[in-house]
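Entry:
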Amino acid sequence: MKRLACIFSAFLLWNCSEHVAGGPGSETTNGIAYVGDGAVASYASVAIRSVDYTSSVDSATSALVNADFYADADGRFSFEAPEGKYRLTIVHGGSAYTGLYKTKGDTSIGSINLEPTASLGGFADVPEKCEFVWVGVRGMDVLVRSDSVGRFQLSQLPSNDSLQVYFLRGDNNKVYDDLSVKLEPNEAEVIDLQPDTLKNKIKFVAVADGKVVPFASLAIRKADWRPDSLRVNNTVVEAEAFADKNGMFAIDSLKSGNYRVTVTQSGLAYSKVLSAKQIAKLDTLRLDATASISSKVTLRTGQEFLWVGVYGLDLLVKTNNAGSYVLPSVPAKDSLDIYFVMPDSAKSLYAEWKAIAEPYSTKFSNPVMVLQDFEDGIKNWYVNTDPLFKGTTLTPTAKNVADGIVYDSTRKSKVFHGQYKLADDDYAWVLVGTTFEHEMNFSAIDSVVFYAKGDGNIRLSLENYIDDTKSLKAATDWMPLSKTWQRISVNPAELCVGNAKTETCFTSWSGVKYLVKQLHIFPQDGTEFYIDDVTLYGALF
């Protein structure tokens, strides 16, 4: 068996004669390889190359060496050393050794300790008219191809020895540059050999469908940035920089903070909010087809339109007089922070919302607004009792909603709890609700939804109470409560109770819908009621 192994090793050495300068004057050399923990490097790969050997593009490989032969189970190896100077490289898993030797009288290399490998990557200087370059190490077989901007990675190199890295042109495979490096075990060295105009820059590439996107547009804005002036702008971003023909951007480093990075090109886009540290590590930006987002916002009564934009983008559109709008050709696959501002001032924030769309889609998003969940901040919510009828009481006391907030284990959240007693009169009432700062145009809302439980009955009313001479309402009929929570959904067609007994559903709602000022919830014929998560569907303000 030993004789067969020797024949096999000799065959490998002869078969790799294009790599090894043997012949007259060569000597038999032997040694033993160990890995870092003192164990023998069993069956380690061994290769011998002339010191100035370079790989052929036809046999390019990411492997450090293609073995000429292997050490035995005890890490021992022997070979016919070529005449003159040569490089010996031994690889065993993630450890390696390399060194320069020359033929001499002493035929023993002795013990060799393999160390953890290191890596070398970065940007090569791509010569003019080259689409890429090849990067290798003299005396080894490794040869890797860069991308179109010169980015390369040699992922496994021997440490603790000076290595001669060489660069081949991509068009004629001729060496055009050399670099000497010496790496520490486990070191990950990054170098930049590109011209001074590109050094110390943040570099990244725009791609789509696996191909680079030449001359794409780039804009970087603060994450909360909004245009200063109000004017229609259907452009997602006004470019601050452009990619080169290889799709590469090179930008200066940014101050700490969050930014929206947006790249666009011919119906494709990438947009994402990133920190300055994340931007510094950008490598590849993948562009997708754009999308459109259509939705609506609730206008105040008498308001003709609002401006709509996206934080960090230049896009700015107008709603129509019903509050509907379309954001055309926006980046897909990322949440967009949409804002609304008043017609007369870009600084006068009206509302905010989030939306996301898939590539190629036209998404209509119906807005949803949680009016009150009783968790935090109960501003503008109150309780009230009819002052005309003695004996009508409500706990918590009038105008103090906070005292009625309790935790409900079923809802697993805070809710409002009211206890009440009504005077013996059909017109006596108690309520919980809110007054809007402005009269609101609710003509386009879909429904009002809330959760309730208790005893007796409950009613929802949308009103426009200004004073005793201006008091309109549209309310539901009384709805029974139970001891378990129920979801109550009210659409405008159910707001049938108005100021006059003869009003229809249509007339009661039509008299209020363009100028809603209050939302009130009334209990009746019981002693207590609970309310949670009052939500408007089809409304945003």
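DSSP finds three helices and 44 strands in the chain.
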